[in-house]
Amino acid sequence: MSSQRSTTTLWRPTGPVELELVRELGWRAWPPRLPEQPIFYPVLNEDYAVKIARDWNVVHDGSGFVTRFEVDSEFLRRYPVQQAGGRTILELWVPAEELDEFNAHIVGEIQVVHEFR
């Protein structure tokens, strides 16, 4: 008898360059952060991810995407929820040096759920 891990759904707004790197990683991991990106911040709700992808990524990158993925809930307990604005502006702040370990706890594939141009 196998036990299924409890997972938490996270979203990540992203531009076309990062999305291509995710594709190259087989839709199973996020690429390493750039030097000017000390944290990886997935968000806790779809509406917030849509707002960033639509209002920021499209303006800066020409297109924006919202991804959805599952992460082992027990592992996520190490990252307190950060309120980055209003009540629904919620993120997890994963230090760049912990991203490989974070990626190892992704369950299934990263999926694109919205695209904006």
Based on the model shown, name its key terms.
single chain, 117 residues, alpha+beta, ADP-ribosylation fold, three-stranded antiparallel β-sheet, two-stranded antiparallel ribbon, 4 helices, 30% helix, 32% strand, Crystallin
Total DSSP E strands:
7
Q: Main β-sheet: number of strands, strand sense, barrel status? A: 3 strands, antiparallel
Whole-number total of structural domains: 1
Cα gyration radius (Å):
14 Å
CATH architecture call: Alpha-Beta Barrel
**How much is the average pLDDT?**
95
Query: How large a portion of the residues is in β-strands, by DSSP E?
Result: 25-35%
Could you name the ranges where pLDDT drops below 50 across 5 or more consecutive residues?
Answer: none
CATH class assignment: Alpha Beta
Shape estimate: globular
Q: H/E element string? A: EHEHEHEEEHE
The span between the termini is 46 Å
Strand adjacency order, main sheet: 1-3-7
Overall SS class:
alpha+beta
What is the fold-level CATH name, i.e. the topology? ADP-ribosylation fold
Task: Count the DSSP helices.
Answer: 4
Helix proportion:
25-40%
In a few lines, what is going on in this structure?
The protein has 117 residues and is an alpha+beta fold. 30% of the residues lie in helices and 32% in strands. The chain has helices at 16-24, 46-61, 73-76, 99-104; strands spanning 7-14, 39-40, 64-72, 81-83, 90-92, 94-95, 106-116.
Explain the overall architecture.
The protein has one domain (7-116): Alpha-Beta Barrel (ADP-ribosylation fold). Helices cover 30% and strands 32% of the residues. It has four helices and seven strands. The chain has helices at 16-24, 46-61, 73-76, 99-104; strands spanning 7-14, 39-40, 64-72, 81-83, 90-92, 94-95, 106-116. It has a three-stranded antiparallel β-sheet. A two-stranded antiparallel ribbon has the order 2-6. The mean pLDDT is 95.
